[in-house]
Specification:
Blueprint lengths: L1 H29 L5 E2 L5 E6 L4 E2 L5 E9 L4 E7 L5 E6 L5 E5 L9 E6 L4 E9 L6 E10 L4
Amino acid sequence: MRATSFLRQSLLLPATVFLIAGTGLRAQAQQIYSPIPLPASREINDNLSNRDIPTGFGGFARDYTVRLEAGDQVAIDVTSDAFDTMVALIGEDGSTISENDDGPDGTTNSLLFARITQSGTYTVRVRAYAGQGEGPFYLKVARLREVP
Protein backbone atom coordinates (compact mmCIF):
# COMPACT_ATOMS: atom_id res chain seq x y z
CA MET A 1 0.00 0.00 0.00
CA ARG A 2 2.78 2.44 0.88
CA ALA A 3 4.56 1.59 -2.38
CA THR A 4 1.38 2.28 -4.36
CA SER A 5 0.85 5.61 -2.59
CA PHE A 6 4.49 6.60 -3.16
CA LEU A 7 4.26 5.62 -6.85
CA ARG A 8 1.02 7.57 -7.32
CA GLN A 9 2.52 10.71 -5.70
CA SER A 10 5.77 10.46 -7.65
CA LEU A 11 3.85 10.28 -10.95
CA LEU A 12 1.23 12.86 -10.02
CA LEU A 13 3.63 15.72 -9.25
CA PRO A 14 5.57 15.63 -12.60
CA ALA A 15 2.29 15.21 -14.52
CA THR A 16 0.79 18.23 -12.75
CA VAL A 17 3.87 20.36 -13.42
CA PHE A 18 3.85 19.30 -17.10
CA LEU A 19 0.15 20.10 -17.41
CA ILE A 20 0.54 23.55 -15.85
CA ALA A 21 3.64 24.33 -17.94
CA GLY A 22 1.97 23.09 -21.13
CA THR A 23 -1.08 25.26 -20.48
CA GLY A 24 1.13 28.34 -20.08
CA LEU A 25 2.93 27.62 -23.35
CA ARG A 26 -0.33 27.19 -25.20
CA ALA A 27 -1.63 30.55 -23.90
CA GLN A 28 1.62 32.23 -24.90
CA ALA A 29 1.51 30.70 -28.39
CA GLN A 30 -1.95 32.16 -29.00
CA GLN A 31 -0.62 35.69 -28.46
CA ILE A 32 2.42 35.46 -30.73
CA TYR A 33 0.70 36.43 -34.03
CA SER A 34 -1.03 39.76 -33.80
CA PRO A 35 -1.31 41.80 -37.02
CA ILE A 36 -1.36 45.56 -36.55
CA PRO A 37 -4.58 47.37 -37.54
CA LEU A 38 -3.77 50.22 -39.92
CA PRO A 39 -4.84 53.62 -38.59
CA ALA A 40 -7.79 55.45 -40.19
CA SER A 41 -5.36 57.29 -42.49
CA ARG A 42 -4.29 53.87 -43.85
CA GLU A 43 -0.65 54.88 -43.74
CA ILE A 44 2.15 54.20 -41.30
CA ASN A 45 5.88 54.69 -40.80
CA ASP A 46 7.24 51.55 -39.18
CA ASN A 47 10.30 49.34 -38.81
CA LEU A 48 10.96 45.78 -40.04
CA SER A 49 13.18 43.85 -37.62
CA ASN A 50 14.20 40.39 -36.49
CA ARG A 51 11.43 40.58 -33.85
CA ASP A 52 8.76 40.33 -36.56
CA ILE A 53 7.26 37.22 -38.18
CA PRO A 54 9.86 34.74 -39.56
CA THR A 55 9.14 34.18 -43.27
CA GLY A 56 10.90 30.90 -43.83
CA PHE A 57 13.09 32.64 -46.44
CA GLY A 58 15.60 33.81 -43.85
CA GLY A 59 13.90 37.16 -43.28
CA PHE A 60 10.99 38.66 -41.42
CA ALA A 61 7.58 40.13 -42.24
CA ARG A 62 5.27 42.64 -40.60
CA ASP A 63 1.48 42.27 -41.05
CA TYR A 64 -1.24 44.91 -40.98
CA THR A 65 -5.01 44.54 -41.19
CA VAL A 66 -7.29 46.78 -43.21
CA ARG A 67 -11.02 46.63 -43.92
CA LEU A 68 -11.80 46.70 -47.64
CA GLU A 69 -15.16 46.63 -49.43
CA ALA A 70 -16.24 44.78 -52.56
CA GLY A 71 -15.62 47.03 -55.55
CA ASP A 72 -12.71 48.89 -53.94
CA GLN A 73 -9.71 49.46 -56.15
CA VAL A 74 -6.61 49.93 -54.04
CA ALA A 75 -2.99 50.90 -54.46
CA ILE A 76 -0.60 49.63 -51.80
CA ASP A 77 2.70 51.50 -51.70
CA VAL A 78 5.74 50.48 -49.62
CA THR A 79 8.95 52.52 -49.69
CA SER A 80 12.23 52.09 -47.84
CA ASP A 81 15.78 53.35 -48.17
CA ALA A 82 16.96 50.51 -45.91
CA PHE A 83 15.86 47.39 -47.82
CA ASP A 84 14.31 46.05 -51.06
CA THR A 85 10.60 45.92 -50.18
CA MET A 86 7.99 43.30 -51.03
CA VAL A 87 4.29 43.67 -50.34
CA ALA A 88 1.46 41.15 -50.45
CA LEU A 89 -2.30 41.46 -50.06
CA ILE A 90 -3.75 38.42 -48.27
CA GLY A 91 -7.44 37.53 -48.05
CA GLU A 92 -9.37 36.45 -44.97
CA ASP A 93 -8.89 32.80 -45.97
CA GLY A 94 -5.09 33.22 -46.03
CA SER A 95 -4.73 33.14 -49.81
CA THR A 96 -2.41 35.64 -51.51
CA ILE A 97 -4.48 37.92 -53.72
CA SER A 98 -1.55 39.84 -55.17
CA GLU A 99 2.14 40.46 -54.50
CA ASN A 100 4.67 43.00 -55.75
CA ASP A 101 8.43 43.36 -55.53
CA ASP A 102 9.56 46.38 -57.53
CA GLY A 103 7.26 49.20 -58.58
CA PRO A 104 7.23 50.78 -62.04
CA ASP A 105 9.50 53.67 -61.00
CA GLY A 106 12.69 51.60 -61.37
CA THR A 107 13.45 51.51 -57.64
CA THR A 108 13.26 48.60 -55.21
CA ASN A 109 10.11 50.04 -53.62
CA SER A 110 6.84 48.14 -54.03
CA LEU A 111 3.56 49.23 -55.60
CA LEU A 112 0.62 46.84 -55.79
CA PHE A 113 -2.77 47.41 -57.43
CA ALA A 114 -5.80 45.24 -56.65
CA ARG A 115 -9.56 45.19 -57.22
CA ILE A 116 -11.44 43.84 -54.21
CA THR A 117 -14.22 41.37 -55.05
CA GLN A 118 -15.36 40.52 -51.52
CA SER A 119 -15.77 42.75 -48.46
CA GLY A 120 -13.67 41.77 -45.48
CA THR A 121 -10.59 42.32 -43.35
CA TYR A 122 -7.45 41.86 -45.42
CA THR A 123 -3.83 41.52 -44.39
CA VAL A 124 -1.07 43.62 -45.94
CA ARG A 125 2.30 41.91 -45.46
CA VAL A 126 5.56 43.89 -45.73
CA ARG A 127 8.85 42.02 -46.00
CA ALA A 128 12.31 42.32 -47.52
CA TYR A 129 13.00 40.70 -50.88
CA ALA A 130 14.74 37.32 -50.46
CA GLY A 131 14.83 37.91 -46.69
CA GLN A 132 17.65 40.42 -47.13
CA GLY A 133 17.38 43.46 -44.93
CA GLU A 134 15.43 45.27 -42.29
CA GLY A 135 14.87 48.83 -41.17
CA PRO A 136 12.41 51.70 -41.49
CA PHE A 137 9.70 51.79 -44.15
CA TYR A 138 6.54 53.67 -45.13
CA LEU A 139 3.28 51.88 -46.01
CA LYS A 140 0.18 53.43 -47.55
CA VAL A 141 -3.05 51.77 -48.67
CA ALA A 142 -5.08 54.12 -50.89
CA ARG A 143 -8.51 53.67 -52.45
CA LEU A 144 -8.45 54.66 -56.10
CA ARG A 145 -11.38 56.56 -57.55
CA GLU A 146 -12.83 56.28 -61.01
CA VAL A 147 -12.40 59.28 -63.26
CA PRO A 148 -15.85 60.57 -64.35
